[in-house]
Amino acid sequence: MSTRRQFMKLSAAAAAGCMLQPSREALAGDMPKLAEDDPTAVAMKYVHDASKVDPASRTNPAPEQNCANCALIQGADGDEWRPCPIFPGKAVAAAGWCSVWAPKA
Known about the structure:
The chain contains two helices and two strands, in the order H-H-E-E. The protein is mainly α. The protein is globular.
């Protein structure tokens, strides 16, 4: 997949997630857990356990990548399952990973 096409796909997913419920802070306890076989999860290569992902396959290499240290994750630090705008209405595993991972600033 070309870099431009991947950027457009990921940008659209992030924008859709941000617009879904802008007036309500998402609480992971209110949401079902994202299944690895969910179509969006499959498209974004989401897994519950980041240690199972080959680092060489990641488009944004970093020594340690997981949902807990991604710039997009929401909710309280330390929670095992947290909301993410990439997967609206679903909670992701803090120990998980997907191809949209971005480092926190």
